[in-house]
Design a protein that fits this description.
The protein has helices at residues 14-57, 60-71, 73-97, 107-140, 143-147, 153-184, 190-215, 221-251, 254-257, 261-288, 297-322, 327-344, 353-357, 363-369, 376-404, 416-442. It has 457 residues and is mainly alpha-helical.
Length: 457
């Protein structure tokens, strides 16, 4: 074959072979880069899928209410005002205190301003929004659609409360850098800051639970308007008292209190009663929106009984440890049972056959648990028995307290006089209100102590 002949088109081209190798290498490098970029994306996608699966396990009412609340104009305006007021207070403080801030501890003063700003959404906006979220469901008739679903009354109430908690967390996160800034200004310790923020959160949670309970009192629009006005007044008073408490805490040397065991025992006492009353309000709210023939009274009475045990236990502790007067226990318990007894003696005992089957059937159960059953008669006996137990505790304390503590003197006879008056007058007026309710029922009138019908607490 002649060497000068043109190459065959089917022969291998060295230039094209090197170009193909280069293209293959570039494609491999590109695929490696794409895989390296896609790896973190895959991890984020897996995390998103995990969060979606966890979101499906959440209460659907919580998801719905949170989405509606965070997209509402009320939340947008409140959140924007919170950021604006926080920025304004920071700028005003820097302008007015330079150069004094370099030499004088100014942390308490700045935290007081931030606490005042945080009080508005935490103690007014969030509780009122929780109240209106459940009241609107009952007013507009949309609650009937929720009641036919698989969600229970307690799940609905907890979903509304969870939405309020999410809003609180968002408001806290907005002012978190500002609060951290106050720690750098000296004059504040970390426990004081946590103390202020923690009690603000607990106060907002308690007011939200109380608002949910208040929203279930009636479904009538005109009564809801009255309750709205009353609840706004309660929130304004709570905000005022909260600011007064805040200023007193920041002006006092709270660091000295943190070293005393009496302070922490008092905190434990307040927290135990706080949890009990939050559970009571939640149970009442869930019972009010459940079916009329359900047994809504027994769980409420269990919580009331636990509160009575807390009153007795903490009263004995403070009497032995701090030499308090035992008659304070009777006054404390009397105020509690006057409030609860008014509703207990005015409730009805209409139960469905299914609810009747859940009542105690054994002899021992009927002996000890009958007073937890619905009805005005059992409610009166339950309240009167708990009040009389205070006198028994006073007698036991008078006999055995001097044996365990040398600082406790012999029980004074004069302490029995106010105790007997408290218990006697309370039992008399509760019994009179119960007889009046029975008489009205026989005349055909509705004697329920709350505006809505049914066996209410």
């Amino acid at each position: 074959m002649n060497d000068n002949s043109p190459p065959s088109p089917f022969a291998a081209n060295p230039v094209s072979s090197s170009g193909a190798a280069t293209a293959t290498a570039l494609n491999g490098a590109a695929s490696t880069v794409v895989e390296a970029e896609r790896a973190p994306l895959n991890r984020w996608e897996k995390l998103e899928e995990t969060l979606d699966s966890l979101g499906d396990l959440l209460n659907p009412i919580l998801v719905k209410e949170t989405r509606q609340a965070l997209k509402s104009k009320q939340f947008s305006i409140t959140f924007s005002l919170l950021l604006l007021l926080g920025w304004f207070w920071t700028a005003l403080f820097v302008i007015l205190t330079v150069p004094t801030v370099y030499y004088v501890p100014m942390g308490p003063y700045v935290l007081g301003g931030y606490g005042l700003v945080l009080t508005i959404p935490m103690l007014i906006v969030v509780p009122y929004a929780a109240f209106r979220s459940l009241a609107a469901e009952l007013e507009d008739g949309t609650y009937e659609m929720l009641s036919i679903t698989s969600l229970g009354a307690r799940q609905i109430v907890l979903g509304k409360l969870g939405s309020a908690i999410v809003q609180m967390i968002v408001y806290y996160s907005a002012l978190a850098p500002c609060v951290a800034f106050t720690y750098l200004l000296r004059g504040l310790d970390l426990l004081t800051i946590l103390h202020v923020l923690g009690y603000t959160f607990l106060g907002s949670l308690l007011l939200s639970v109380f608002g949910l309970m208040l929203a279930t009192v009636t479904r009538s629009r005109h009564w809801q308007v009255v309750l709205s006005v009353l609840f706004v007044i309660v929130l304004l008073v709570a905000a005022l008292l909260g600011n007064i408490w805040l200023m007193s805490v920041l002006s006092a040397p709270t660091a000295l209190l943190f070293d005393r065991w009496e302070f922490w025992m008092g905190e434990a006492c307040l927290l135990s009663f706080y949890l009990a009353y939050v559970a009571l309000f939640l149970q009442i709210a869930a019972g009010q929106i459940s079916f009329t023939s359900e047994n809504r009274s027994t769980p409420v009475r269990y919580i009331l009984f636990v509160i009575q045990l807390l009153i007795i236990g903490w009263s004995i502790y403070f009497c032995l440890a701090m030499e308090a007067e035992i008659v304070v226990m009777v006054l404390w318990s009397t105020l509690h049972w006057i409030t609860a007894g008014v509703f207990l003696t005015g409730e009805l005992s209409q139960l469905s056959p299914r609810a009747l089957r859940s009542l105690p059937q054994t002899t021992a159960g009927r002996m000890f648990l009958t007073w937890f059953n619905p009805g005005s008669a059992t409610g009166y006996v339950f309240a009167a028995t708990c009040l009389l137990s205070n006198l028994v505790v006073m007698f036991v304390y008078a006999v055995f307290a001097p044996l365990f503590s040398t600082s406790v003197d012999q029980f004074e006879t004069q302490a029995w006089h106010p105790a007997l008056c408290f218990v006697g007058y309370t039992c008399f007026y509760l019994g009179f209100s119960r007889l009046l309710a029975v008489g009205l029922c026989r005349l055909g009138a509705q004697a329920s102590m709350l505006i809505s019908h049914g066996n209410r607490i």
